[in-house]
């Protein structure tokens, strides 16, 4: 097994464990955060952070499997490129990089402006600091390392932006479904904004995700 395969295995395992721990052991009372246990078994799937953690877990698992079973050449001929390598090359620029950077930058940006907008201090006793860094810091570190280490064959820009935009649109719809079902916004910052401000906020966030895709 190559050193890169060992690295991918470790990264994937630590993300999978974080998802498992968050799902099973982080229980925030609704008196502390109204989204803590609201709306049954949607559980952590309310949060884009959790969607991203699952995506990173899946991506680095694919990267590990590619080291074992796929194409590891820097630039294999298209006809000799394995399906798993094609999936890896599609996921990294279209979702894994822009989404991890989006989640990390927006979380820490809002956190340093006013943490109550995104991660209220009252949550600290229920959400371990190590888990917070796995979900919001390590996601950026490891995907940046992967961008540096690995050659990838990019899809066309129209395909990449369509995939990313569809993913972000799905979460945006899901965010509003949760609000209409519960009357509560998943993220406290949205409570502070009126309709127009929320629309501008969402447009800016979608614009940021596109910029991150173009950078990647």
UniProtKB/TrEMBL annotation:
Catalytic activity: 12-hexadecanoyloxy-octadecanoate + H2O = 12-hydroxyoctadecanoate + hexadecanoate + H(+); 13-(9Z-octadecenoyloxy)-octadecanoate + H2O = 13-hydroxy-octadecanoate + (9Z)-octadecenoate + H(+); 13-octadecanoyloxy-octadecanoate + H2O = 13-hydroxy-octadecanoate + octadecanoate + H(+); 9-hexadecanoyloxy-octadecanoate + H2O = 9-hydroxy-octadecanoate + hexadecanoate + H(+)
Membrane-spanning ranges: 48-69, 90-110, 130-149, 161-180, 195-215
Topology relative to the membrane: Multi-pass membrane protein
Highest taxon listed in the record's lineage: Eukaryota
Annotated keywords: Membrane, Transmembrane, Transmembrane helix
Pfam family, one: Far-17a_AIG1
Family: Belongs to the AIG1 family.
PANTHER family: ANDROGEN-INDUCED PROTEIN 1-RELATED (PTHR10989), AT02829P-RELATED (PTHR10989:SF16)
Protein name according to UniProt: Uncharacterized protein
Species for this entry: Oryctes borbonicus
